[in-house]
Amino acid sequence: MATRRGASLACCCVFLLFFMENVHGNPNYGEALAKSLLFFQGQRSGRLPKTQQITWRSNSGLSDGKLAQVDLTGGYYDAGDNVKFNFPMAFTTTMLSWSTLEYGENLGSHLSNARTSIRWATDYLLKCATATPGKLYVGVGDPNVDHKCWERPEDMDTVRSVYSVSQSNPGSDVAGETAAALAAASMVFSTVDPKYSNLLLRTAKKVMQFAMLYRGTYSDSLGSAVCPFYCSYSGYTDELMWGAAWLFSATNDVTYFNFLKSVGDDSGTDIFSWDNKYAGAHVLLARRALLNKDTNFEQYRQEAENFMCKILPDSPMTSTQYTQGGLMFKLPESNLQYVTSITFLLTTYAKHMTATQHNFDCGNYVVTPNHLINLAKRQASCLIH
Which domain of life does the UniProt lineage start with (predicted)? Predict the structure, then answer.
């Protein structure tokens, strides 16, 4: 299904940053990263700037939000569609921000492009979160109609339906992910644009409060407007955890840590994607156990390592299949989205292990940072070739 490709394609650059030292070798990670960032320009909705490099794209979706009498222009189209699905778009934004926070020093001249890609999304997400009190807009464009009509966004004549969640029609999952995206981005812009960073963080807090207070899945509230395209298959608890983890990272407010301890968890997951965020939250929080030696986060270190044990092919605890060529295989529908997002977790956890000279065990199998890095390189090479 076309819409499932959006998250995987948009996340294709996030783990390449780790390998940027090999900018002229084979594979050339620097070239792959540049093209991955350029992809976002091809997906832009709204009025395009003079700096637009993909010149065969032009202004589109300039009346988005008009049916609700609000301005919802901007953001990104989903894969080959002309729909703006905020759930995967916000996840992509969170991951772009996380990759920039972790590997920004490796980006060189690409750093400004990464920030621009993030801001194109967050400018739109801010509109969605602030346009109407008590509502969070979560999408533009009727996916059922759009899927039947193949046309350029510049030429589209399909209805630009507007979808939102509210107190009476909750969407804790999409709200939690939106809060995560805004909070993570606030950290990216904290020094380069403090005013914008503060706006992102203030809005993230309000959206997260909405997600926590009014519980429910957005696919239950919106039905065929989001299903079967981006249903919330895993429920909303993972997004509550993910959003709280990012707000805690951005603020150090113990309120979010206490909330983390109060929500449920899933220690058995071996997936990380736009729909299932548990593993990402575990790796993000485990950072404090490794780098800060904070025993309050020891649970998340163990959860993160349990996840790695399920991914590593030689681990006695593995639950992951690999192709003959060595590519990770999780699910048949748009498998590469799982490869890219999981590989990012491998590289990031390896980075923190290296910094602290940390190893861990999968049963009787000792895992070093190089085990994770080598597996990540194999995935990157498979994808680039």
Answer: Eukaryota
